[in-house]
Design brief:
mainly beta, Jelly Rolls, five-stranded antiparallel β-sheet, 2 helices, binds dtdp-4-keto-L-rhamnose, EC 5.1.3.13, RmlC-like_jellyroll, RmlC-like, dTDP-4-dehydrorhamnose 3,5-epimerase, RmlC_Cupin_sf
Length: about 180
Amino acid sequence: MNTLLTDLPGVLLLETDRRSDERGGFARWFCESDLAAALQGATIRQINHSHTVQRGSVRGMHFQYAPHAEKKIIRCLSGKIFDVVVDLRKDSATFLAWRGFELEAGDDRALLIPEGCAHGFQTLSNEVQMLYLHTAFYTPAAEGAVRFDDPRIAIDWPLPPQNLSERDLLHPFLSSDFSGISL
Ligand SMILES: Cc1cn([C@H]2C[C@H](O)[C@@H](COP(=O)(O)OP(=O)(O)O[C@H]3O[C@@H](C)C(=O)[C@@H](O)[C@H]3O)O2)c(=O)[nH]c1=O
């Protein structure tokens, strides 16, 4: 597994070699040992799947507060997405910076998102399936979110955002004195 740094500290692109033969292919998508340095002692607690029907749909931008903060490993199983990470970490050199990464089925790429970063995505095709590996249990009381259209973050979505959940439309904008979350 190749672990590629991005310019957001702790956000990693994970690339896997695929062995192909006449039957098709085989790739190792998760190895606790290969990812030991990236996981920093955390273990995978939950594996989740989502299905999004329509191109242009946006889900996000979600995170969990400490002590339930989590790393997530995100992979696209079907279709194509624009995956977005926002750095919300207090005192981070890249505080409030966002980055977008295209992930698509068959690319054998995943994105590792560290604690303190919000995550969301926009579907670039119909019929998108996503796989999530989480290092913390889903804890509704610890859920946090920022709006997909927060002006302090100004994410440049590739398509007009649509099909947001009621919950995602209710997230408040960041206050002008928001200075980040502590882990
Ligand atoms: C996230 C989550 C939701 N749920 C429930 C709550 C709700 O009834 C239903 C759908 O939840 P949501 O609307 O929050 O689903 P969704 O908007 O797809 O939430 C996901 O968004 C992306 C961007 C992420 O990064 C994920 O970690 C997750 O937060 O599933 C769980 O049972 N376990 C979970 O881990």
